[in-house]
Design brief:
Elements: E1 5-9, E2 12-16, H1 23-36, E3 42-51, E4 56-64, E5 69-74, E6 77-82, H2 93-102, E7 108-111, H3 118-126, E8 131-134, H4 139-151, E9 158-160, H5 165-174, E10 181-184, H6 194-199, E11 206-214, H7 218-231, E12 236-248, E13 251-260
Parallel strand pairs: 2-3, 7-8, 7-10, 8-9, 10-11
Antiparallel strand pairs: 1-2, 3-4, 5-6, 11-13, 12-13
Helix pairs in contact: 2-3
């Protein structure tokens, strides 16, 4: 079997082949995968990694129904999205559940880099949050985000605030909006966007900040968070750091939990 690995997203399997595998072999093995997994209707090959701030991936159709639109279920929620034009990680399912369990009754939550709404919707559906604001730059993701809010009957609880957070944060600040919890499941970018998070924080705000690094770099990320807080004249207390998944050998997604004092 040449299939190195595959992710199942609802009705679609995304496979990865080693270099040099012939198309007829890819088709034969993909048909075998279809046969062994009744829920899978389409097999796509991953031909490019996630790129840029919008985290778009490139895939190629191999066999099955000719679609790149997924219907996916997790944590009592349903999501619809396009594989190539939006970002979604099924591997963060447990992470989303864990964060939802940390939200307290009547808290107002901001999710930055919300994509098609997985964190926003899982939190809204599985916690007693009062309201969740969902911010995303990608217009296509926002289109699916709106669809997913309706699919999960959360129109009263989740509100889209689309656009670049660098422009959106000052607008929210002018409206006097401050949040009890800020979730930052950010892509791999140079900018930490902590300035925008601190802009919308108050005493007692809990921030869940995601970054990417090797194990021996975790303390450096924590120091960076502390320095950003100092720049923004905010006092913070680090609650904990945790590994939230391995991306590559010795490279992790980490989450830094801290509170604004």
């Amino acid at each position: 079997m040449n299939i190195k690995s595959f992710d199942m997203l609802g009705n679609i399997a995304i496979v990865k082949f080693p270099k040099g595998v012939r198309d007829n072999v890819k088709k034969k093995e993909s048909l075998e995968l279809l046969k062994n997994h009744n829920s899978v209707k389409t097999v796509l090959e991953k031909v490019g990694n996630f790129k840029g701030r919008l985290r778009k991936m490139k895939t190629k159709y191999i066999v099955g129904e000719k679609t790149k639109e997924v219907l996916y279920h997790e944590n009592n929620c349903t999501f619809r999205f396009n594989i190539d034009s939006t970002y979604f990680s099924p591997r963060l399912s447990n992470e989303r559940k864990e964060v939802a369990e940390m939200i307290k009754k009547n808290e107002v939550v901001l999710v930055m880099f919300a994509g098609v709404g997985p964190f926003s919707i899982v939190v809204a559906k599985n916690s007693n949050a009062k309201k969740v604001y969902s911010n995303e730059l990608n217009r296509e993701a926002n289109k699916y985000g709106e669809m997913n809010i309706s699919l999960n009957k959360l129109k009263e609880k989740v509100e889209l605030v689309p656009g670049d957070i660098k422009r959106v944060a000052p607008i929210l600040k002018r409206k006097g909006m401050k949040f009890d919890v800020i979730l930052m499941p950010r892509p791999q970018l140079k900018d930490s966007f902590l300035k925008e998070a601190f802009m919308l924080s108050k005493k007692g705000t809990r921030i869940y900040y995601y970054d990417f690094c090797k194990e021996d770099e975790i303390s450096g990320i924590v120091e960076m968070v502390k320095k950003e807080a100092l720049k923004c004249k905010k006092k913070i207390k680090i609650i904990k750091t945790k590994k939230a998944g391995e991306l590559a050998p010795y490279k992790f997604r980490i989450r830094v939990d801290f509170v604004v004092l």
